[in-house]
Amino acid sequence: MKKIFYTVLTLILCLTTGCHSHENHDDHDHDPVHNHGGKAPDALEAHDDEDEAHNPDEIILTPEKAKAAGVVVESVVPSDFNAVIKTGGKVLTASGDESTVVAPSAGIVSMKKGYTEGMAIAKGTALMSLSSSRLPEGDLSRRNEIAYQQAKSDFERASKLLEDKLITEKEYLAAKTAYERAQLAYEATGGKASVSGVSVSAPSGGYVKECLVSDGDYVEVGQPLMRLTQNRKLYLRAEVSERDYDKLGTIASAKFRPSYSERIYNLQDLDGRLVASGQTATTNSSFIPVTFEFNNTGGVVPGSFAEIYLLTGRRENVISVPVSALTEEQGVHFVYVKIDDEGYLKKEVKLGATDGERVEVLSGLQAGDNLVTEGAIHVKLASATAAIPAHNHNH
């Protein structure tokens, strides 16, 4: 009986020991420290976040540094965008705003002061004098004054004689006509003669566009002396290639950048209008002129060359970005998208047409992206820093 009892007890102990050993083995297989090189689950999660923080395309820039650098972020919204013909051209003075000062008599030029292009001139300003005192026929203003005084005296005498009926009406009218002609010639040369000669004044106010004579030059009657411009209206003449001839009818407005400035002028902001569109190429040229007129509000220099963006038909739902949002590396263009409070993502974009202020984006951006529109260069510089701090966040 005792033998049976001990046999059963032995079996129970064996079974109990086996089960305990199996449980320990299962616990050993699921020990995370054993399976992951001694790292706890929390350590694994931190390791995964650390790998995420080192995304090579992500840039870290704290809100404080972004504000100090002038970083501005805007949401990408598709909108209307004009098709563009990019070309060159020139800014010209509008024809109605120019006046030419001509010589009222022949003589030697004596400038009142030195005149340079762009100098402001008030109406009636004495510009120069023309003296003929050293010419063989003598000073014209002096001759006109003598003739005027003589004609005036004859007319006054004829008036008295007519009252006494000592001359005929015809003789009186002849004296009157001679007097009026002498008066016109006298006044045309500036009235009373002076030692300085005939004074030449500005017929209108404006700016000196071109001075055509120099001190000491001899000029004939009617010869141009100076060109003045009021500079209120200007022309923008674009030279359009023959290959874009079929698009001429769709041109609505234009933007331009003068060669001396980085500023883009929009003709719509300057009350600009299309005044002429050529139908054929100009002589000795394969370009067709297209001319706009606009108000000169200052800053635009007549005669300067310009880069011109002719705006044609509008397209809807086009993603475009300001030029300031772009950076370039070896011919490849990039933008920067804000993904959270201090994280920015560098994205390559493919570009389309540009109107000088905005550029069409064909690929690389989508509606709703938070795009860096100002300060992109500072975000780019942040990406070039040698050490990027750890940055734990969820996307």
Concise structural overview:
With 395 residues, this protein is an alpha+beta fold. The protein has 7 helices and 23 strands. The protein has 4 domains: 2-51; 56-78 and 319-383, conserved putative lor/sdh protein from methanococcus maripaludis s2 fold (Beta Barrel), CATH 2.40.420; 84-94 and 232-315, Elongation Factor Tu (Ef-tu), domain 3, CATH 2.40.30.170; 101-229, OB fold (Dihydrolipoamide Acetyltransferase, E2P), CATH 2.40.50.
List keywords for this structure.
4 domains; alpha+beta; six-stranded antiparallel β-sheet; conserved putative lor/sdh protein from methanococcus maripaludis s2 fold; elongated; 395 residues; seven-stranded antiparallel β-sheet; disordered C terminus; Elongation Factor Tu (Ef-tu), domain 3
CATH architecture of the largest domain: Beta Barrel
* Element string (H = helix, E = strand): HHHEHEEEEEEHHEEEEEEEEEEEEEEEEH
- Strand order of the main beta sheet, please? 14-13-17-3-12-16-15
Provide the domain count. Answer: 4
SS field, number of helical segments: 7
**Helicity range:** 25-40%
Principal-axis shape equals elongated
